[in-house]
Amino acid sequence: MTGVTAPAAEVIKAENLWRVYKAGAIEVRALRGINLQIGQGTFVALKGRSGSGKTTLLNCLGGLDQPTSGAVYILGQNLAHLKDSTLTRWRRERVGFVFQSFGLIPTLSAYENVELMLRLKGTPAKESHQRTLACLDLVGVNKWSHHRPYEMSGGQQQRVAIARSLVHDPKLVVCDEPTSSLDHETGHQVMEIMREVAAAPGRALVVVTHDSRIFGFADRIAKMDDGHIEKVVTSAEQL
Predict the structure, then answer these.
(1) Which residue of 43, 65, 152, 208 sits 20 to 30 Å from the alpha carbon of 55, by its own alpha carbon?
(2) Nearest one of 112, 91, 199, 223 to 164, comparing CA atoms
(3) Domain ranges of the chain
(4) 14-39: b or e for each residue (b if 16 or more CB lie within 10 Å)?
(5) DSSP, residue by residue, 13-34
(6) Are 10 and 46 in contact (CB under 8 A)?
(7) Span 10-233 CATH architecture
(8) Distance from chain centroid for Cα 123
(9) Which pTM does this prediction carry?
């Protein structure tokens, strides 16, 4: 089986994953039979040129896209067996997303952007307040909790986005190019935070990136090309 195997219990398992897009008579095979396993406490970086299938794979693992065939299991749950409404709730409760563009709501403060995830989940107000402050403190932006995104630097916004992705204690965190718009020092700080995120019990972290700075933080680096995972190495082995 081609993939990433960790000694800890599985968080992610993908079996013979295909994703085919059709535009008229044209077929684009974005994923071609991928098999993938990722254990608890594991940080996996997906590397590959544009169009290699990295983001498509990330979207399928996070439940944002449905594979054409094959199956994705998260903590033993087959995502294909979930109705749309159940899948939406599952994503909200089980997955944390971090995007290149941060994805913060500009009219809300840092605190409100993070707390929103718990409001959607229906978390009691006192618990929501405590967890939001704890996550802002974890990523080092508690001093900016009442600032809106346009009042913060790119690095601060990305930290808020990470706090938002963690506040509901997800078992899977997926990131799409989280450091591409950050300078070297800020990117390094963000990845140190993400390394801590991945180490949490029962959690896995998958990052799509072109940024070679990330590879030193990852437990495994999976190189993708043309919808396949070509090989998997540790960061020490270097691709």
Answers:
(1) 152
(2) 112
(3) 10-233
(4) bbebbbeeeeeeeeeebbebbebbbb
(5) EEEEEEEEEEETTEEEEEEEEE
(6) no
(7) 3-Layer(aba) Sandwich (3.40)
(8) 22
(9) 0.87
